[in-house]
Amino acid sequence: MTLQTAGIHHITAFVQDAQRNADFYAGILGLRLVKKTINFDAPEVYHLYFGNENGAPGTIITFFPSPIGRKGRIGSGMVGVTTYAVPAGSLGFWEQRLNAYDIPYTTVHRIGETYLSLADYDGLRVELVEREEGPLSAWSFGGIPVEHAIKGFGGAVLYSINPASTEDTLVNTLGFERIAEGDGYVRFRAAGPYGNIVDIKTDPLPFGAGGSGTVHHIAWRAKDDAEQLEWKDFVESRGFHVTPVQDRNYFNAIYFREEGGILFEIATDPPGFAVDEDSEHLGEKLMLPAWYEPHRAAIETNLAPFEVREIEVKSE
Question: Contact at 8 Å (CB) between 55 and 4?
Fold first, then answer.
């Protein structure tokens, strides 16, 4: 097997309110809103993308905000925790920042690393960890200096109903290397500069239920369209049902569900988020794919307005 993913391309989750979502991921965590668009399969719902200065693969978390969506339950068959990497020596800064905004967190230890574990406003589990590898983000917002800003994904924790099968898929299908085990987890590494560490919880939890506060899918990187087609053939040869290629405007996507119940995507690195707006103004207006432009007025009427804003400190 010669194909090896570089790691996480993006992670997509459900939330309820677009403004609260922007307040947490931009206002508190300091990520850049790099694209404001719609769910191409349900145009009455936003699809919001947050990442580093240009939304590089390995930094992108995306959301479907739906005010009428049901509350989800985190469990097996999904990503249980989304991990963000911050520069070495930055956890003290983030402890102070979370305290200032009254964001509860705990300190946890896993496979030789220390994490700040917290939840967003919908209950999605998030953690921060110091990592040396990966370039610094060039994006600064809300009083977060670039030397402490989130660089991108540190990785993710997978909650599988069948951890052994999920491990087999990571190693023998996606090309991850098994590098460590301990504290109830098995750890795997890909070759990318960030989004490259994935942990599997070894004891299965009860099945999760999709809804706000849960991850819908995790996407892995393909370097281009040609490699994605190689991935499609290879994943199918491993016995998985793979969807046809889906045009997501900013990348192309294929999907398959692995035997631990988690929905996997393989997404292309190009073309990226500057394909339809200037890189200096990413995320500032609603962008629609060409096939939805004739319906812009109706679509905008159905979407509640929100803004990216600095958040007032609650505690000194």
Answer: no
Q: Which helix (H) or strand (E) holds 15?
A: strand 8-15
What range does the domain containing 242 cover? 8-301
Asked if the structure places residue 179 within a domain, the reply is yes
Q: In the chain, how many domains are there?
A: 1
Q: Which pLDDT score, from 0 to 100, does residue 176 have?
A: 98
One DSSP character per residue, 170-189 reads IIIIS--EEEEEETTEEEEE
SS3 230: helix
Strand partners, 106: 117
SS3 98: helix
What does the pLDDT look like over 265-295, one tens digit per residue?
A: 999 999 999 999 999 999 999 999 999 999 9
SS3 state of residue 39: strand
Helix (H) or strand (E) holding 21: helix 18-22
Nearest of 197, 218, 100, 211 to residue 154 by alpha carbon: 197
Q: Which residues does 168 contact at the CB level (< 8 Å), separation at least 6? A: none
Q: Residue 314 falls within a domain, yes or no? A: no
Residue 51: name the closest of 97, 92, 11, 106 by CA: 11
Q: Do 233 and 242 touch, CB atoms closer than 8 A?
A: no
The CATH number for 116's domain is 3.10.180.10
Q: Determine, yes or no, domain membership for 172.
A: yes
The model's pTM: 0.96
Cα dihedral 260, 252, 284, 84 sign: positive
Could you tell me if residue 310 is inside a domain?
A: no
Cα separations in angstroms, 23 against 30, 121, 143: 9, 9, 14
